[in-house]
């Protein structure tokens, strides 16, 4: 169970916990299956060897008694069993190779587990540094947000002051009013000058002797 948990912990960083659990169970099942096959093959091989040995002894006994067809049949059967033994030995070699491969993988997995266990303290220290950095950045972010709110309030005040410049229609109306005021000022200056001129003329006329009759009016 500890072996399975350690293997799952090592693979979980790369495959995820669920996938790692499935993969480890598959490997352990394959290892158990290979070992069972190896055991069964050894038992079968031993049984066949015993049968071959028994056949050989039986053949020798029969050879001593007779040289007939029964002996030839036994020899043929013996060759068949020997061929079966060779086939079983090949299967046994393949199973042993599979077990060796599984053991190599387990060794690699153990090395990976040891490496991960050694790496965990450094990762934790790095995580603590990152958390501290995040805390500082959050504080800085609060300051930035406060400055942003202040700038936004200042900007709103400036926008209120400069709303005339931002609104083209209001600006055009304002320009028209300014132009109208300038025209009125100009007309006022003209009227003032005309009034002054008329006042001067009236004064000059009043100062002349009354030779041409009474002055009716003077505007």
Layout of helices and strands:
Blueprint: H1 2-15, H2 17-65, H3 69-161, H4 163-166, H5 168-207
Please describe what this structure looks like.
This protein is mainly alpha-helical. The chain contains 5 helices and no strands. It has helices at residues 2-15, 17-65, 69-161, 163-166, 168-207. Helix 1 (2-15) packs across helix 3. The chain is rod-shaped, with a radius of gyration of 57 Å. The model is unreliable at 214-219 (pLDDT under 50). Keywords: Cell projection, Coiled coil. Residues 32-203 form the CCDC113/CCDC96 coiled-coil domain. It is found in: Cell projection, Cilium. It comes from Electrophorus voltai.
* Structural category: mainly alpha
**Main pleated sheet:** none
Overall pLDDT confidence: 74
Using DSSP, what is the number of strands? Answer: 0
What's the Cα radius of gyration? Answer: 57 Å
Low-confidence stretches: 214-219
The string of secondary-structure elements, in order, is HHHHH
Number of helices: 5
Give the distance, in angstroms, between the N- and C-terminal Cα atoms: 123 Å
Strand content: under 5%
How helix-rich are the residues, as a percent range? over 70%
Shape: rod-shaped
Number of domains: 2
Domain CCDC113/CCDC96 coiled-coil: 32-203
GO cellular component, one term: ciliary basal body
Coiled coil: 45-91, 148-201
Main location: other
Question: What attributes does this structure have?
Answer:
5 helices; 219 residues; 2 domains; disordered C terminus; mainly alpha
